[in-house]
Input
Amino acid sequence: MRYLLLIAGNESQMQSATAEQGEAMTNEYAEFGKTMAERGVLQGGERLRFTSDATTVRVRNGEVLATDGPFAETKEQLGGYYVVECKDLDEAIEVASKIPGARTGSIEVRPIWEM
Output
């Protein structure tokens, strides 16, 4: 089954990180990607730009409404995602637990509804 692993964390912590801290985290994510690709579970993933670059779109009564920023104010923001193919939820949770951001934020494990 395929799962979407949504990485949520505090953007202000990421933005205030030193260059060394940022490089260390980038290296950890690169190692995670390499390990999971070699394992055969990683199907894709991307880092997302900060919420200051986001636009939320709604359609109400036929009118398109676009607003700056994310759809909701939260303490944690969506920072990226991975798509993985795992045999079951237990394996998906185990993979999610190895994402570096799980130590400071959270990882939502969501089964993909195949169409």
About this structure: The longest helix spans residues 19-39. The first strand starts at residue 2 and ends at 9.
